[in-house]
Amino acid sequence: MTQVPAAEAALRFTVGDADTAAAVGSGSLPVLGTPRLLAWFEAATCAAIDPTLTAGETSVGTRLEIEHLAPSAVGQEVEVTARLAYADGRLRRFSVAARNIGPDGPGTLVGSGEITRVVVDGERFMSRVGSPRA
Q: CA-CA distance, 27 to 16, in Å (whole number)?
């Protein structure tokens, strides 16, 4: 296992109309949609890993395993956390969690899981991406 700096982040989001299952095409209800929750989880992993990267490095998501456990209504504030759980070479695996925020702080667990990212040289990575076909 490679020694890497500790990496963690906490972000807060407020569920808006554009974040609902109905808006993102993952259902018909006006509650936080799973695709948006996943995007928030990825944002938290990026916020955690970015300070540990050197010039020219970035990271790409390679594996996602999440559970969406409870609803969040429009207007609900949600705290999303990511904490480095494992590192090996360029691979970084993060534990992620999301909780609805109430008047007394974090409350109901909305979702949790693991997201794996791999550190890459941004320029080299993009040079390997083919041009789209016309």
A: 15
Asked whether 58 and 102 are in contact (CB, 8 A), the reply is no
Q: pTM for this structure?
A: 0.92
What Cα–Cα distance (Å) separates residue 78 from each residue in 63, 102, 133? 23, 9, 40
Is the residue at 31 inside a domain? Answer: yes
Tens of pLDDT, residues 80-133 = 999 999 999 999 999 999 999 987 767 899 999 999 999 999 999 999 997 777
Residue 130 located in a structural domain: no
Does residue 43 fall inside a structural domain? yes
Residue 104 φ then ψ, to 5°? -105, 15
CATH number at residue 100: 3.10.129.10
* DSSP structure string for 69-98: -S--BTT-EEEEEEEEEEEETTEEEEEEEE
